[in-house]
Amino acid sequence: MKKIISKIFVLSALVLMFSCKKDLLNQDNPNTLTVDQFWKTEGDAQKGVNAAYAMFYQNGGWNRWIYFRLDLTSDEGWSNSPWTELGDWTRFQYINYNFWEGNVNTYRDTYKAIFRCNQVLTYVPDIPFTDAKKKAEILAQAKFLRGFYYYYAAILWENFPIVTTLQKPTDLPQQSSLAQVWAQVEKDLTEASADLPEQWTGNEIGRATKGAAQALLGKALMQQHKWSDAKTAFDYLVTGAGKNYYDLVDYKDNFRAENENNKESVFEIQFSDVNKNAEGDGPSANVGSNRAQFFAPRSIGWSDGQARFWLVNEFKKEKTVDNKIDPRLRYTLFYPGLEADFGDKIYGRSWEWGADEAWFKKYSRDYMRNNEDYFNQVNNRVIRYADVLLMYAEALNELGQTADAYQYVNRVRTRANMAALATAYPTIGNDKDLFRDRLKVERSLELCGESVRWADLKRWGDLDTKVNVDKVALRDPDFKNFVVGKHIRLPLPQVEVDNNTNLSQNPNY
Amino acid sequence: MSMKKKLHFSKELKLCFILSSLFILCCQAVFAQSNVTGTVSDKSGPLVGVGVQVKGASASTTTNQNGVYTISVPNAGNAVLVFSYIGFTTQEVAVNGRSTVNASLVESASDLNEIVVVGYGTQKKKDLTGAISIVKAADVQKRQGTTVAESLQGLATGIKVRGGGQPGSEAQIQIRGLKNFGDNNPLYVIDGLVTSANRDFNPADIESIQILKDASAAAIYGSRAANGVIIITTKKGLDGPMKIEFSGKSSVQTMPRYDVAGTEEFSRLNFMAYDNAKVKRQELDLNTNTDWQDVAFRTGNVQDYNLSFSGGSKDASYFVSGGYFGNKGTVISTDFDRLSFRVNTKGTKGIFTIGENLAISSSKVNEMSGNPIIDVIRMLPTIPVYDASHPGGYGYGDESKARTFGTNPLAIANLEDRVNQNLRIRGNLFAELQLLKPLKFRSSLGYETSRDHYTYLKKDGFWTLNQAYDPAILNENRGESSTVLIENTLTFNKEFGKHSLTVIGGQSYQKDNYAMMWGTKRNILQNSTTGHYYDVLDQGNEALTGGYRNRSDLISYFGRLEYNYADKYLLNAVIRTDGVSRFGPDYKFGSFPSVSGAWRISREDFFKSSWIDDLKIRANYGTLGSSDIGAYEYMAFVNTFSAIPMGPNQNLQSGSTQVQLANRDLHWEEVTQQNYGIDAAFLNNKLSISGEYFISKTKGVLIRYPLLISTGNDGGNPFVNGGILGNRGFELTATYAESSTEFKYNVTANLTTLNNKVLGLGYNKNKTFVGNTVTEVGEPIGMWYVLQTDGLFQNLDDVKNYKNSKGKIIQPGAQPGDIRYKDNDGDGEITNKDKVVVGSPWANYELGLNIGASYKGFEFSMDWFGSFGAKVFNGPRSVMDNFSDNSNYRAGVQPWTPENPNTTVPRAFYSSTINARGDTDRWLENGSFARMKYIGISYNIPNKLLKRIGFNNAKVILSGQNLITITKYTGLDPEFSNKSVFEKGFDYGAFPNLRTVSLGLNFGF
Questions:
Q1: Sequential DSSP letters for B475-540
Q2: B31 or A466: which carries more pLDDT confidence?
Q3: Which among B638, B720, B884 is the nearest to A33, CB-wise?
Q4: For the domain bounded by A39-196+487-499, which CATH number is listed?
Q5: What are phi and psi of B149, to 5 degrees?
């Protein structure tokens, strides 16, 4: 009996021992595909480019923080946040260059988006497609998005290392000059434009079009003062083959969840409130915008950003043709007189804030609810036709074709029921400088709070000399902190400078 | 009186004995050389290898396998034989002319004979060649801790324990410094099962604890042993009738508290900060004076009851225990409950033995919401606890009256319910077959599973200013982990004369699985009458679900050879080969050998000392491995979660992309260690000293080393074998124990020094910066790297005169009362380039002191632990003293004013970083401390009394923990923990150690 037990015991132990085959050590991840298993089909390519669009929904970019850089840092906005460091980063008090919310998150998400575009541009060319046009469109969208991110990198950091290939952990990319970054933007957008469709239909509406690429290319050229090239780029939308796709619409329809992707929209970030979840790369992540939650008046939202009051005054300087207050004010700002002027409450409340305070109203849901949250579904019309028209006018003016420029400004003014420019401001005439000065005001009235002002100030040279900066500081005292030659660009994240031996910190930081 | 008499009597007896001995010696002086033989035994039989020596002569021998010796004695008349054996009291016996002299040795009080579990076998403490600490189970059990780790601080050298305190929280433990940048938690082996002694494990079941600290000791566990191994053996039944033991402990716990301002002081300082900043004052509610610490903190308690039944016969034994542990936390709405149950049995028939250890536990933690440790200082005293005007009804910050984003700790505690429950089954079944007398085969099947259930319910309402609106949300997740461990070992053990040999060979296979699924819904149904929420996933809408699973496999082969020659020369060699599924095809296997030796000098013939009882030196060298990474880290994956709304209906289209990079060539992290030790016992084993010096080097440290941002990587930095870390340290333990008198006492002091040094970093980088620290090659990890403050500007002349060598005013914007920073790079500006290394977060040395004493039925013990020389960052003070953002202030803080210039605190200034920067040396403090970890007194009720009620033993214990702390640190607790390796010295407002007073009762019958 004892022997039998022993035998069974030893035998079973041996069986156990040999059952441990080495292939037990090859365990596949049961949760998802490896990179090697992906990038095989047309569907993979489509998903790849979709993931690049998904970067719009992450904190560093158009979901949240970029508005602090573009709107609040400019003279249109400011921060009265009790979070001192967050506020400091809107008033040129950059102490810790690694401040996540002010700098690193946006820098990181820019590269994250570029990585996604680079994956598409690296892998998709090798994927066989039955329809070559579809493949070209996917590649063109990736180029558009990469150009889009480099455009904002040029605006924000300027000397931003260009990465167009998939990075290994050990790669140390070289520093790029601002001119090199612009060259990359032009290349990507030019190539994108060639293959992007003029319009998308059905469920694809919202993707980048040829017009979007031309408009963004034009904006990039404007920043470099390449007026003629910029005009050429805009021609497609204003006078060229694309002009019938674009028009101006009811002003408020540019900032609401209804009538999205309308004729005025040149490029629009699609937001939805379908996923009430945190942002990021997890399942069912938020695809809405946090902007309104952060910019809504105190006790409605975080109120980390608000509008400078000079804007209210600027709107009230000129009446409409029927002697009313500029209707654009109604949809642009929350300000003390809103209820008196237009009968609108603020998220259902009468004014309960300071008499000299104002907040940004565009993209808010005040018209439909009494609070905000992190899941705002109002699309951001990043480039709208009014912007293109005013840019076009600016390019013409710079090229000495001031008289020709009037009509485009007038289109924008007329929609707001304002008199023709020459009627309202007869002294301008064909004076290039006077025209430019007026155009600056026209742009702020039309586009205030739409994240274009920082680029405008840079393009106009308003931040290039102490004299000019002092003028800006009259509207926004934060600019008293502005050091010419330094704060025109953000510092690179210090951790990146420390870790990439090919990189130097931006000048004067 | 009677004692004196006794003493008297024994003196007389001694005198008589000496006299008669002398007489006998004289008489026999004439006898010539002769052989004396005999048997040396102890109570259990003959002793092999006992040293036999003729006193005052060179002749010596040892007993053979039957305990028999023969020695040539020059003068058998007056010769005295000295019998010495490690672990036994040395005995001298006069020959008196006899030719047969038998001796019976008695085990000495010293613990050298303690059986030490060394992994797949046991050794006697005296035979150890590696660095192993033995902690008495009683010392652990006398303390009130949720986990074993919590109770180990100060009980052994080279061990650092931090954390615990919160209900259900688990302490971090670190053995001999940081071997890598990971969590550094050691491997736990409980009754042979590789596991973790987490909160599900009841410390009351412990029989013994051994801590394997160096490579030679831990190498048998190869992979994952890099951070050391803690071997725990649970109690077994003993031969005899059933014994029933009960132990019960009831404790009261209190939090240390901040000394913060009340409304009067707060408002004065707050107005000052606003006035200085020329900001309109807040309309503070001066009629409210809330003590937020009273709101958030309370007196906690612990109830810990254990009952066990054990017994057995020659062939079988059993141990059954049940325990309940209940902890009401010191923070509101936190508690922890654990029910545990264990059955250990074993039976033998002839050459066959079978046994099992099984533990089942059910735990439930009501987790803390928010961080009340910080929130009690971020909330202003002028904020009321309740405010009916707020949704939910709680007071919190207000834009005009109280501008803070602090969280109302009561509101979040009531509005958020976080409950974490699990059921754990852990056990193993083993069988042994004594194939031949020296050959034993053992097979063990271990299984552990935990069924986890977590629920999170957020109710409708707000707890902080400007909180984004969310409806009631329920999140529920269920996870299941399991580990299967199959091990087979063959042990050969034989003694050949003076040679003793043990060889162990074995093989093991381990499979770990984890799977979880979760679901979330919003707008959870509420009963409007009672306010109750139906916290089930059937209710609500906007459902989200998810889930994943992981598996990893480990196959190992191992062997150990132990050789012992005459107790003089000890040799140990170990090898283990591990193959793990976590590494890529070419990197799965790693081999980890070690060798160690010891020389017991005191057993050498030439060694003669009347006062040294034992002297042993040890040395070893070995390699350990670590694969402490996730299951699939070497592969790059596609994230398929992106979704984009497109088209007029904004239908979601899915996206896929690579988010995280991966390093395909990940391989084993390897620690090589050298250890040199000396063990000595003096004064009849009353004094024992043990010293260790070790050097360890970890190569290919698996670390999520930061990648460049330009890689576009996200989702965490991928693991890389990046970095080389060195540790060297010295450990000394000295124990003096007097147990031969009625008043027994023992004192143990231990000293640990440890230096870590980074010898290399990932991707060939030189430095890495994390928070306020820099980690640089050639330096210790995480050195403080901050701006240096240099007092305050007292007047505008000070500001104007503060120039660099080129005459540039360094801080032109400064005002009197502002901080002066050192312009270390001399460029005339205060920038990041002025930061320098200003100190180390690491202690120079740590001391433990354990004192025990007993007299009759009373026992007293006290443990101290001290850590000296660390510089630490006081996070909470950087919140309270900064004045830039509203929080409550430290009571008695004296910001600079023209009237009060003699202070180190700069002027109060609201909403500016001028004087509030976090990256300066202003917040660094001396982190040295000495703390009485434990003090206890117990009384054993006399047997006479007990017998009457049928008890065998009964004991009452009154004890206290953390009652006295001596430190200059101004935070809540200098003994805090921070999980980030790079910021070990940063106190972000860690949960403090609690002051605990316990009353316990143990009895058995």
A1: EEEEEEEEEEEEEEEEEEEEEETTEEEEEEEEEEEEEEEEEEEEEEEES--B-TTT--B--STTSS
A2: A466
A3: B638
A4: 1.25.40.390
A5: -55, -45
3-class SS at B851?
A: strand
B226 touches B185 (CB < 8 A): no
Tell me the chain A residues in contact with residue B658 when contact means C-beta distances shorter than 8 Å.
35, 38, 115, 119
Do B715 and A281 make contact, defined as CB atoms within 8 angstroms?
Answer: yes
Q: Which of A56, A166, A180, A49 is nearest to A106 (CA)?
A: A56
* CB nearest to B765's CB, from A34, A202, A499: A499
pLDDT reported for residue A255: 98
Chain B partners of A171 at a C-beta cutoff of 8 Å? Answer: 708, 710-711
pLDDT at B182: 65
Instruction: Please name the residue that has the structure tokens 């410390």.
Output: B203
Rounded-to-integer distance, Cα A62 and Cα A271, Å:
10
Q: Which residues contact B622 (CB under 8 A, 6 or more apart)?
A: B214, B215, B216, B219, B574, B592, B593, B594, B595, B596, B672, B673
> What is the spatial order of strands in the sheet that B836-839 belongs to?
B767-770, B773-776, B783-786, B836-839
Which residues in B lie closer than 8 A to residue A300 (C-beta atoms)? 466
Across B312-325, average pLDDT? 94
Q: Of A276, A286, A500, which to mutate for an interface test with B (greatest number of B Cβ within 10 Å)?
A: A276
* Confidence band for B172, pLDDT divided at 50, 70 and 90: confident
Residues B800-820: tens digit of each pLDDT: 999 999 999 999 989 999 999
Question: CA B784 to CA A403: how far, in whole Å?
Answer: 64
The Cα of B510 is separated from the nearest Cα of chain A by a number of Å equal to: 9
Is A426 an interface residue toward B (CB < 8 Å)? no
Residue A14's pLDDT band (boundaries 50, 70, 90)? low
The domains found in chain B, sorted by start residue, are 25-104 (2.60.40.4130), 111-236 (2.170.130.10)
Q: Which two tokens stand for residue A478?
A: 């934060």
Higher pLDDT, B24 or B642: B642
A379 vs A254: CA distance, rounded Å: 9
With 0.90 as the threshold, say if the pTM is over it: no
Collapsing DSSP to helix, strand or coil, B88 comes out as strand
Subunit contact A118:B712, Cβ cutoff 8 A: yes
* The amino acid at A346: I
Closest-CA distance of chain A to residue B235, Å: 26
* Partner-chain contact B647 A204, CB within 8 Å: yes
Q: How far is A430 from chain B (nearest CA, A)?
A: 43
The one-letter code for the residue type at B22 is: L
The pLDDT of residue B179 is 65
Which of B710, B719, B915 best tests the A interface by mutation, with the highest count of A CBs <10 A? B710
B654 contacts A205? CB cut-off 8 A: no
Determine whether the interchain pair B441/A10 forms a contact, defined as Cβ–Cβ distance below 8 Å.
yes
pLDDT digits (tens, 9 = 90+) for B366-395: 999 999 999 999 999 999 999 998 988 999
Place of tokens 């700790």: B409
Render pLDDT for B47-66 as a digit per residue (tens, 0 to 9).
777 778 787 776 777 788 78
Of chain A, the percentage scoring pLDDT greater than 70 comes to: 96
B685-717 pLDDT, tens digit per residue, is: 889 999 999 998 989 988 888 899 999 999 999
Q: Can you give the residue ranges of every domain in chain A?
A: 39-196+487-499
User: How far is the CA of B294 from the CAs of A263, B377, B596, in angstroms?
Assistant: 61, 12, 57
